[in-house]
Design a protein that fits this description.
Jelly Rolls, alpha+beta, 3 domains
């Protein structure tokens, strides 16, 4: 179905031929909505206002809603007023978009999605007039907002609980998804020396115990399966406690309550769980992590972020994974993928690689910290008052880490980002001086490989 961007292109072409300089139109259409179901669609209505300036520039603003528009008041209200009446974000198609995250509970803590689009949650775009689901906004003008209607990489924060075991993530790997973590916080109660960690690859000392790689894989699988057997016995008991407490069988349980349930188990079963988990975990290597560290995780790399280590993650926008093991009940599937994953995993952790320095001076430093098949990540350090010309890319995601930066351009009102605030930067700002550090600042940029 024809979207508003195609109507806009036709309207602007006609306006240039006819000498018109401004106008407004509305358009109803539907978009695929897999977050509502595999064959679902979402009816939408957009209202678009355009202006051709004397210098040849084009200013386009729009909002999108799933509610009927009151066409009778079109001439009485500004587009901003009409957007606010629907609680919708007023989108400037040439300006950065502030991303409003959605919080997704996990048994180990929470994920905070800035570009998430799936059944568990939709991230949003937020302006002074309201907020709108991200996929609705992207459907307004996918080429103008993302460059070539390409997918955004998934930007999120992993926020694990500080408690050992209960805050440790799944030990998992991915066949397609590539990830990069940047550490933003290490819980001082969990890690008093400020150094947390991530399980990544198999322990070198463990490899020396076995004659060959196949023997190592088999021993690791045996340890995982031994632990899974005791884990399932415990989870069956915990499911009974869930039902008594009125907690859904696939809902997270507060860690304090889980710890109490654990203490109520027979001592022999508790000891068996601890012993078999220790054997299983002895096969994995732990890489130390402190604030500011970066970890790139290629495909088939077994990994598990440890408790109390908060990270920002950029990843390929796919949702596949293979779970090797987990020290709690897995809530999203009823099986582990241990045998297949261990057979295909890379044994060694990925080597540390030095960032590619693109600019280095007293007041700024720009590094390409990872270059994956589908996206790059740049780390930018700026002194207060310094400007940055943004990389040329179909689109960019910007995440603040330290300090404050202002995003803006020729027709942008200016958008400030602080730590763990994010924005989508459309392609029209690439190659322009459109970012200024208000404080000494550290930020991340990500975009498609170019």
């Amino acid at each position: 179905m024809t979207g508003p961007e195609q109507i806009l292109d036709q309207t602007l072409a006609a306006a240039r031929r006819e000498g018109r300089s401004r106008g407004r139109f509305s358009h109803a259409w539907a978009i695929p909505a897999p977050w509502l179901g595999s064959q679902a669609s979402q009816p939408l209505v957009a209202e678009v206002e355009w202006q051709l300036t004397a210098d040849g520039d084009t200013r386009i603003q729009a909002f999108v809603t799933d509610q009927p528009l009151d066409t009778a008041s079109t001439t009485d209200q500004t587009l901003s007023e009409r957007a606010a009446a629907h609680g919708a974000a007023l989108i400037d198609l040439g300006a950065p978009l502030a991303l409003a995250p959605v919080h997704i509970p996990k048994p180990w803590g929470q994920e905070i999605w800035y570009t998430g689009i799936e059944a568990r949650g939709l991230s949003e775009v937020c302006t002074a007039t309201g907020s709108s689901p991200l996929p609705w906004v992207l459907a307004l003008a996918p080429v103008r907002l993302t460059g070539s209607a390409s997918e955004l990489c998934l930007l999120k924060t992993l926020d694990p609980l500080p408690e050992p075991v209960y805050g440790d993530l799944y030990l998992e790997l991915h066949e397609e998804k590539q990830e990069v973590y940047v550490v933003t916080h290490v819980d001082p109660q969990a890690w008093p020396d400020g150094v947390g960690g991530i399980r990544c690859g198999l322990a070198p000392e463990k490899r020396r115990e076995y004659a060959d790689e196949q023997s190592l894989r088999q021993a690791f699988l045996t340890a995982v399966q031994d632990y899974e057997a005791v884990r399932r016995r415990i989870d069956a008991r915990f499911d009974e406690r869930r039902q008594t407490a009125g907690i859904g069988l696939n809902d997270p349980v507060p860690p304090a309550l889980l710890a109490q349930w654990q203490q109520d188990l027979p001592a022999a079963l508790r000891n068996e769980e601890v012993q078999k988990r220790a054997v299983m975990e002895s096969f994995t290597a732990i890489r130390p992590l402190k604030v500011g560290d970066l970890v790139a995780l290629p495909t088939r790399t077994p990994h598990s972020l440890l408790h109390g280590v908060r990270v920002i993650e950029f990843q390929t926008p796919v949702y596949e994974r293979q779970i090797i093991a987990f020290a709690q009940k897995v809530l999203t599937q009823n099986h582990w993928d241990s045998a297949e994953a261990i057979a295909r995993m890379h044994i060694d952790a990925p080597p540390d690689s030095a960032p590619e320095v693109l600019a280095d001076g007293a007041d700024r430093r720009v590094e390409r910290v990872v270059r994956f098949d589908s996206f790059n990540v740049w780390r930018v350090t700026l002194s207060a008052g310094m400007d940055l010309t943004l990389p040329q890319a179909p689109h960019l995601l910007c995440m603040g880490i330290q300090g404050r930066v202002q995003l803006g351009g020729l027709q942008c009102g200016g958008l400030q980002l602080g730590p763990e605030q994010a924005a989508l930067i459309p392609p029209g700002l690439g190659g322009k001086t459109a970012l200024r550090a208000l404080d000494d600042s550290l930020l991340l940029l990500a975009g498609p490989d170019i």
